[in-house]
Write a structure and sequence with these properties.
The chain is mainly β. It contains one helix and 17 strands. The strands form four sheets. A six-stranded mixed beta sheet has the order 2-7-10-13-16-17, with no helix packed on it.
């Protein structure tokens, strides 16, 4: 970004998989620049998804053709199913599965999901 500092606008963690056609945008533009977005480790974002979240935790799977609204917060160890729309300012709790338009809670993930997502992303690399 240009200007007074060298702040990172989009921070992406280790072993993240961003599919072709996915769009990652900062959630908001201020008069001084952009509001930062942080994406954790071992995150998978599917084809055609548009992400404008403030924070995405680690060990998250976002399916194909999803829309993640501005300033949404997705905690660690979550799964967003294909074609899901997460409204702006939504907080998705840990170990949850969201689905639909608008996205609603449908199920819980087991505690071993962290190991599964880590193995999946490392195998891909």
């Amino acid at each position: 970004r240009t200007g007074g500092g060298h702040a990172v606008v989009v921070a992406i963690g280790r072993y993240c998989l961003l599919a072709r056609g996915s769009i990652i945008r900062p959630p908001y533009k201020t008069y001084k620049g952009y509001y930062p977005m942080k994406i954790g480790d071992h995150v998978t974002i599917g084809e055609g998804s548009i992400v404008e979240a403030a924070t995405i935790g680690s060990f998250v799977h976002i399916g194909k053709n999803c829309v993640i609204g501005r300033f949404a917060i997705i905690k660690d160890c979550c799964r967003i199913e294909d074609n899901t729309v997460i409204p702006p300012n939504t907080v998705v709790p840990s170990f949850s599965i969201y689905e639909g338009s608008p996205g609603i809670f449908v199920d819980e993930l087991p505690e071993c999901v962290q190991d599964l997502y880590e193995a999946k992303t490392k195998d891909y690399y």
